Amino acid sequence: MKKILIANRGEIALRVMKTAKKMGIGTVAVYSEADRNAPHVRYADEAVFLGNSVSSESYLAKDKIIHAALKTGADAIHPGYGFLSENATFAQMVSDNGITFIGPPTHAIKIMGDKLAAKEAVKKYDIPMVPGIETAITDISLAQEISKEIGFPILIKASAGGGGKGMRVVHESEELPGQMKRAISEATAAFGNGAVFIEKYIEAPRHIEIQILADTKGNIIHLFERECSIQRRHQKVVEEAPSVFITSEIRAAMGAAAVKVAKACNYVGAGTVEFLMDKDKNFYFLEMNTRLQVEHPVTELITQVDLVEQQLKIANNEVLQLGQNDVSIKGHALELRVYAEDPVDNFSPSIGTLKTYVCPVGIGIRVDDGFEEGMTIPIYYDPMLAKLITYGNTRSEAIQLMLEAIDAYKIKGVATTLPFGKFVFRHQAFTSGNFNTHFVANHYTPELLLAQYDKERHIAAAMGLKLFLEFKDKLKVPANEQSNWLLKRTIK
Ligand code: MV4
Q: Which of 99, 122, 174, 193 sees the fewest Cβ atoms within 10 Å?
């Protein structure tokens, strides 16, 4: 493998190129109209223009991307996350053109992209599953029967869904017919596939996922867990590794289950097996993500394994040099996704130009980003600006470093999730480890965030006043102008 094309943009394109450069592999960027001056274009050895800014004419344009790879002589394509990363048709097209897809084989993407097919595939492997059915259901009286057996509340899920789309909680049997009809029509509209199934609804679960690596020779290892319970609108905002919630016994059991899931679909490459965990620490297989994930850095920090390097070696048919006993957890890592959105306005996208953009730096601080000061955030793509990642010997060290890094991160021009991160990392529920996927619903309100700002203003004012009272006799400012002077200094 001498040259790879990165079919993505922003921080993940840069992240992949960084490792490719380290390994002496050439890099080809692709870009849209909106990204003409983007850092990922300048950082690559070569760059190919794709087309208009809309994703369908650029980062989702399969033919254009494959053509770009053929034209530049790239041996392989890395899809990053999002866009075409879990598109089985694209993966197949890439291989059909004699190019290596840096990701799993087409069949694994297909199986895991369909929740019912995934359940079917892992069934024989003795993996803990949420009580429920393994086939699509349309018959309402049959659904009633099954639901009574499982016990309410139940959850209706779309087989083609994922990320929370098309899910419906049903608390009692009278609600079932209506909710079933709605779920089926929603799934048909959203995915062109109306297949739905029923599961026991796990209330207030934790979301814990296991990173795995599998080579083409049948070797599979896991790289422990990531705790991803803190999310809003079914999208993660804070991740950490390891999880405070699990013991080493549970960790080993979940790791073994994740390896079996990978085996069940003949997985190759880096992948993530997601589990739900109830309050009694029972864990259940949820789904498998067949890509490198946004939150992969926390695993890299605690294991000291470069996951992109492993992906490239596996794609190059090399044997995994890491056995299960070669990997261990050292220290603690946290990640905050810095989105251009307003946490006091329902996390709505905040569009604009980065008038100030200064990153925190220091030992134990990693920032993966794809933006620079002066850049305008394109409206066409995901509004994630950066990932702020901290690493410490202990969880509390990582939290302390995170709070300092958030304060040192200077972003002006758009609202961001930085203040929300501060709210989370200072919250007793988070610091004590007593939280689940309902953290935002249970603990967060915009008023509390505003109160956090107010508290900081009060502290600043009190400090200003104290300094003023201490030094006012030494001031060369006339007494009648002192209050104005103080005001100006405080604002500064
Ligand atoms: C569940 C669940 C409770 N019980 N399944 C949400 C995303 C989708 N991939 C599956 N999800 C859930 N499935 C059962 N049987 C609760 C969720 C869920 C959730 C899961 C992980 C992270 C955040 C979540 C937020 C709300 C609901």
A: 174
Which is catalytic among the residues 15, 168, 206, 291?
Answer: 291
Question: What is the spatial distance between Cα 248 and Cα 270, in angstroms, rounded to a whole number?
Answer: 22
9 in catalytic set:
no
Cβ–Cβ < 8 Å for 125, 294: no
Q: Which residue has the tokens 């890509």?
A: 291
- The terminus-to-terminus CA distance of the chain in angstroms comes to 54
Asked if 265 and 288 touch (Cβ cutoff 8 Å), the reply is: yes
Distance CA(25)–CA(27), nearest Å, equals 7
Mean pLDDT by 10 residues, the chain (492 residues): 98 98 98 97 98 98 98 98 98 98 98 94 95 91 94 94 81 95 90 91 97 98 98 95 97 98 98 97 97 98 98 98 98 98 94 96 98 95 97 98 98 97 98 98 95 82 82 78 74 58
Q: How far is CA 157 from CA 116, 176, 189, in A?
A: 10, 13, 14
**Ligand 1 closest atom vs CA 228:** 22
Q: How far is the CA of 234 from the centre of ligand 1 (A)?
A: 8
Cα 157 to ligand 1 centroid, rounded to whole Å:
10
List all residues 6 or more positions away from 321 whose beta carbon is below 8 Å from its beta carbon: 313
Element spanning 367, H or E: strand 365-369
Q: Whose CA is nearest to atom 6 of ligand 1?
A: 164
Which residues sit with their C-beta closer than 6 Å to ligand 1?
130, 155, 162-164, 199-202, 205, 207, 231, 234, 276, 286-287, 437
Whole-number Cα distances in Å, 320 to 306, 311, 312: 13, 10, 11
Strands 3-6 and 76-78 come out as parallel
